[in-house]
Write a structure and sequence with these properties.
Blueprint (H helix, E strand, L loop, with lengths): L8 E3 L3 H11 L13 H4 L5 H13 L6 E4 L3 H8 L7 E5 L2 H8 L4 E5 L3 E3 L4 E3 L1 H7 L6 E3 L4 E3 L3 E4 L2 H12 L1
Parallel strand pairs: 2-3, 2-7, 3-4
Antiparallel strand pairs: 1-9, 5-6, 8-9
Helix pairs in contact: 1-3, 3-4, 4-5
């Protein structure tokens, strides 16, 4: 296990969004100062049962008619797979795989953010997606994080991704 903390870029999360981060991060062991990203949370096939449990709890927080953001990540992908339980929900996402899953679900409207594809991560980042987000309002945001710190909040090691996440949590 290697901590990504020294190279991580924090983004500020509004208090109204923090509960979604806590729900999605609840399977991670919280340490007094930081959380290390282990192989368990880096890959799609790892910790599947825990990710499904978190997604089950998260889908309960979504109401019919909501407009939500699903950030890129394996836990948010599990949440996307459960969206068929809801009706007339609009989902904004920057994740290519999540968008493909949602495309197959009736009564779910998908808005895919533009931008530059982050190779190897199946998501978009950058100015085009941010420009689109500036015109939207959402009810809830479900964000993936690389680490959590009590002092610095949620972090990710990529500067463009941090900027995209910052925008996603500010609308």
């Amino acid at each position: 296990k290697r901590s990504i903390w020294p190279s991580s870029m924090p983004w500020t999360v509004p208090k109204s969004t923090m509960w979604a981060l806590v729900v999605l991060a609840s399977t991670w062991p919280l340490l007094p100062r930081r959380v290390s990203v282990s192989a368990m949370v880096k890959t799609t096939g790892s910790a599947t049962a825990e990710k499904k449990r978190v997604a089950e709890r998260a889908v309960e927080l979504i109401e019919d008619g909501d407009t939500i953001i699903l950030d890129t990540g394996t836990t948010t992908l599990e949440l996307a797979r459960l969206m068929g339980r809801r009706r007339n929900v609009t989902v904004v996402t920057n994740d290519i795989t999540i968008a493909a899953v949602l495309e197959e679900i009736e009564n779910i409207h998908t808005i895919f953010m533009g931008g530059v594809v982050r190779k190897g991560f199946h998501c978009t980042v950058g100015a085009a997606g941010k420009a689109m987000l500036e015109r939207l309002t959402v009810d809830k945001a479900f964000m993936g994080v690389n680490a959590l710190s009590f002092e610095k909040g949620a972090t990710t090691p990529d500067l463009q991704h941090a900027d995209t996440k910052r925008m996603m949590t500010s609308i």
